[in-house]
């Protein structure tokens, strides 16, 4: 039985730029087998597109609540989106 593939868009708020957040996010996503992207946004937040098996994406979202020890996450907004067939995990901005 295969695990359902899901896609989650996430925006992380707090001290999340200039602390290696995107690189830690990429490493964690690759460790969990999650595809997608991570990017800094002009408003100081970090935006993620996460796609893969539900258990892996959910684990990634759980990790984003705290992020790496160098970051201070004060908020996380997520919403599920249509699966796009993403492959790999890239830092895009």
What is this structure, in a nutshell?
It catalyses: an acyl phosphate + H2O = a carboxylate + phosphate + H(+). This protein has helices spanning 21-32, 54-64, and strands at residues 5-15, 35-40, 46-53, 72-81, 89-91.
Could you characterize the architecture of this molecule?
It is a single chain. With 93 residues, the chain is an alpha+beta fold. It is built from two helices and five strands, in the order E-H-E-E-H-E-E. The chain has helices at 21-32, 54-64, and strands at residues 5-15, 35-40, 46-53, 72-81, 89-91. It has a domain at 18-73: Alpha-Beta Plaits (2-Layer Sandwich). The chain has a five-stranded mixed β-sheet, with helices on one face. Its EC number is 3.6.1.7. The active site is at 22, 40.
Furnish the topology, listing elements before pairings:
Blueprint: E1 5-15, H1 21-32, E2 35-40, E3 46-53, H2 54-64, E4 72-81, E5 89-91
Parallel strand pairs: 2-5
Antiparallel strand pairs: 1-3, 1-4, 2-3
Helix pairs in contact: 1-2
């Amino acid at each position: 039985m295969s695990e359902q593939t899901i896609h989650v868009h996430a925006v992380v708020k707090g001290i999340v730029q200039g602390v290696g957040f995107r690189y830690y996010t990429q490493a964690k996503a690759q460790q969990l087998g999650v595809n997608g992207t991570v990017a800094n946004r002009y408003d100081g937040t970090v935006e993620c597109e996460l796609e893969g098996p539900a258990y892996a994406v959910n684990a990634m979202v759980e990790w984003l609540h705290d992020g790496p020890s160098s970051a201070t996450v004060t908020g996380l907004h997520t919403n599920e989106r249509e699966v796009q067939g993403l492959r790999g995990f890239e830092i895009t901005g």
